Amino acid sequence: MERLRGLDGAFLALESPTTHLHLLGTLVLDPSGAPGGLGFRRLRSAIGERLERVPPFRQRMLEVPFGLQHPVLVDDPGFDLDYHVRRTAVPAPGGPNELAGVVAEIAARPLDRHRPLWEFHVVEGLDRGRTALVAKVHHAIIDGVSGAEVLASFFDLSPDPSPRPLFRSAASPGPGPGGERPPPDAGGGDPGPGWSPPPLPGEADQWRQVVADLPGHVDAVARGVTRTVRAARALAGRGRMGGAAPPTPFEAPRTSFNRAISPHRRVAFADLSRSDVRRVTTVLGGTANDVVLAATAGGLRTVLSGRDEDVETSLVALVPVSVRTEEERGALGNRVSGMLVSLATGVVDPVARYRRIRDGARAAKERHRTLAPDLVASWGEAALPVLATRLTRLVTNVRLFDHVSPVCNVIVSNVPGPEVPLYLAGARLEALFPLGPIVEGVGINVTVFSYLDAVHVGVQACWDLMPDIGVLARGMEEALAELVAATDRHQRPVPWWHGELPA
Question: Catalytic residue at 139?
Answer without folding.
Answer: yes
